[in-house]
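From the methods appendix. Each design record in this collection lists the tokenized structure first, followed by the designed amino acid sequence. Records were kept in a plain field format so they could be parsed without special tools. The example shown here is representative of the layout used throughout.

RECORD:
FOLD TOKENS (178 positions):
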């Protein structure tokens, strides 16, 4: 089966997962911003992933825009955020990014990285404000992801793990059988 990995990564976390998928499958990785639909539609399997920004998956607009041309392919979506994986959060992500016809597309979440000092000015400002607002709350009321970013302070955090990809590889195997 032929396949391609499209990825939009701002600080390298989704790119790391894309690279691991590529090593395992032999599929090439293309930055979604450079992807051309007439090239992508030549492949049987399309894996599209990106970082999470305000619950939106970076680069998902490529899939939305080109879904008609790709709907008969084996499509897999993945995304990568700071939060630990949790079912409620995955539901929110799916509702926001994969509405209507796209709802049936398998979507996987992998924990990424968090490094405020390495962010661009706008992201750093927004994230510092966000952390300050969380610090004012009672720690016992914070959800697990909020606790993590408060505890991280200015430290560089890298939660990426190749093992998280197992369910995605299982989904790839399902596609090969059908
Ligand atoms: C402005 C901003 C908004 C973010 N929003 C979310 C979010 O909604 N949910 C989440 O889990 N992580 C969020 N993050 C954390 C990133 O998703 C995380 O750092 C991820 O590893 C980025 O992936 P990338 O490096 O591939 O772009 C946000 C980060 C920034 C800078």
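DESIGN:
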């Amino acid at each position: 089966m032929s396949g391609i990995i499209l990825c939009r990564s701002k600080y390298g976390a989704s790119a790391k997962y894309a690279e691991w998928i590529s090593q395992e499958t032999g599929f090439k990785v293309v930055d979604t911003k450079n992807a051309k639909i007439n090239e992508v539609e030549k492949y049987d399997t399309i894996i599209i992933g990106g970082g999470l920004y305000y619950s939106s998956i970076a680069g998902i607009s490529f899939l939305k825009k080109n879904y008609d041309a790709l709907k008969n392919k084996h499509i897999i979506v993945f995304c990568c955020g700071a939060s630990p994986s949790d079912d409620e959060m995955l539901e929110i992500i799916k509702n926001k990014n994969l509405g209507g016809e796209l709802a049936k597309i398998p979507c996987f979440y992998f924990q990424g990285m968090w490094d405020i000092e390495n962010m661009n000015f706008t992201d750093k400002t927004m994230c510092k404000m966000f952390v300050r607002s969380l610090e004012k709350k009672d720690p016992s009321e914070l959800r697990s992801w909020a606790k993590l970013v408060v505890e991280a302070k200015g430290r560089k955090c890298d939660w990426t793990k190749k093992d998280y990809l197992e369910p995605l590889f299982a989904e790839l195997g399902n596609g090969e059988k059908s």
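APPENDIX NOTE: Helices lie at 13-25, 37-40, 60-70, 87-97, 121-135, 144-152, 166-177.
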